[in-house]
Amino acid sequence: MAMVYVLALGCVLMSIPTAVLRHLGHEKTRFVAKLAAALLFCAAGFLAATQREIPMNFATALMLVGLVLGLVGDIILGLDRFVPEEKRNFLLITGGTPFFLGHVAYIVVLASLSPLNLWLLPLFLVLPILILGMHKAFNLENNLVPFLFYSLVLGAMMVFTVNIALQGGPLGRLMILPGLLFTVSDSSLFLGKYLPERRGRPMPVLYYLVAIPYFTAQALFALSVSYL
To answer: pTM value?
Structure first.
């Protein structure tokens, strides 16, 4: 079991050079670091599945599917610096699809584990309301519908991770942060795409707010495979 935690920690640590290399503009090396981090969280999840005390079940299998979808999304979005500017929006939507499906897989797993505390439902609407409030300022008309769908999924992720966290135990402790971390990461990805168009320059801090929270969340989901 210790090796599972080593792999998960390695994933989190690898997210730091991923962000630094993006900041420095070393895109080829950054892609390699990002791929390594993604492979580490997948490796942690699959190793955890082999070390379970009980046989693999539906929740475990679906969690592994979610991790693999995250790897696929990382590969696609990692190519964004290697394509012409006019194709990056298409790549964002294409790469976002595996993440969307991976988030849905995580949500289905978490929803199957415990009845939902209904007072958490307002969290569903926080991000869609923000998107609707900002869509004119950021000229999101072409992407408004997919962004709204994605924001609903992020809201659901927060609802169901917090719901499991409230149950306590080893799994509950792992689920305290992933929903929030995914929200921070994806919101930073969104701002990193649209803010430079308004400010005339990028915000390097967003590179760190995309990579480190994202890989930390994936590492926590990988660790959760041991307790499903």
So the answer is: 0.88
Q: Which two tokens stand for residue 194?
A: 């649209």
Contact 212, 19 (CB under 8 A): yes
CB burial readout 168-194, b (16+ within 10 A) else e = eeebbebbebbbbbbbbbbbbbbbbbb
**Residue ranges per structural domain of the chain:** 2-227
The rounded distance, in Å, linking the Cα atoms of 108 and 33 is 30
- Integer Cα distance of 94 and 78 in angstroms: 12
Interval 165-215: pLDDT, tens: 998 899 999 999 999 999 888 888 777 766 654 555 667 888 899 999 999
Express each pLDDT in 209-222 by its tens digit: 999 999 999 999 99
